[in-house]
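User: Here's a structure from my thesis project, written as structure tokens. My advisor, Dr. K., wants to see whether a designed sequence matches the one we expressed. Can you design one independently, without my sequence as a hint?
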């Protein structure tokens, strides 16, 4: 039986584009497989305490028999988070775009996972496995737009998930997600709808493809 791991980092449930597109992706995979285990980690609504990372990081440089109770607890949390990712055949990771950078909730999770030896730099704990990064950005950041170059997050996600962890990564992106609620973006509503539809279509297509590979 295949196992999916899904991480949600949006601070919203209702109206969350990353959650909606990830739902399409997850449902497409499950529909093709028919039977799979899904492990979920919610860090947007119930974030992991930010001090866990520093404590777990220092625990890694401390002999186990000399670790403080706090270090032992942080190392156990890190191992548990890494267990979830290591057990998955496919990882679905959602990353809303806040303030032009990496989601703090996603980064806290990733920083803690990076303290585990299986996902530390050089270990490539995801090698040979598939991962999907679902990104939603409220505005437009492509070449030629006024804020081209302001996306300081996407490359970081790719570096960690693909280059450091070794996953075979596919990125599914939706932009202009705030167009309907922002009068200044009224001229972009139609384009926003098209962009979102394409994101859902890509999610369904990728879901079917990876499910086929898992079932083979």
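Assistant: Designed independently from the structure alone:
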């Amino acid at each position: 039986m295949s196992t999916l791991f899904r991480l949600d980092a949006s601070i919203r449930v209702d109206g969350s584009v990353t959650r909606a597109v990830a739902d399409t992706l997850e449902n497409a995979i499950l529909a093709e497989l028919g039977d799979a285990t899904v492990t979920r980690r919610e860090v947007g609504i119930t974030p992991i305490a930010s001090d866990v990372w520093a404590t777990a990081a220092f625990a890694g440089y401390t002999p186990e028999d000399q670790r403080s109770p706090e270090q032992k607890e942080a190392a156990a949390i890190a191992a548990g988070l890494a267990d979830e990712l290591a057990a998955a055949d496919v990882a679905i990771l959602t990353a809303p775009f806040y303030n032009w950078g990496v989601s703090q909730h996603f980064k806290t999770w990733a920083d803690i996972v990076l303290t585990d030896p299986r996902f530390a730099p050089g270990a490539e704990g995801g090698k040979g496995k598939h991962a999907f990064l679902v990104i939603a950005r409220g505005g437009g950041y492509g070449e030629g737009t006024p804020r081209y170059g302001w996306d300081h997050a996407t490359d970081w996600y790719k570096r960690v998930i693909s280059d450091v962890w070794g996953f075979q990564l596919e990125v599914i992106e939706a932009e202009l997600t705030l167009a309907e609620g922002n009068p200044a973006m009224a001229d972009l509503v139609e384009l926003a709808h098209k962009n979102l539809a394409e994101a859902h279509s890509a999610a369904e297509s990728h879901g079917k493809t990876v499910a086929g590979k898992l079932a083979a």
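When you compare it with your expressed construct, this may help: The mean pLDDT is 96.
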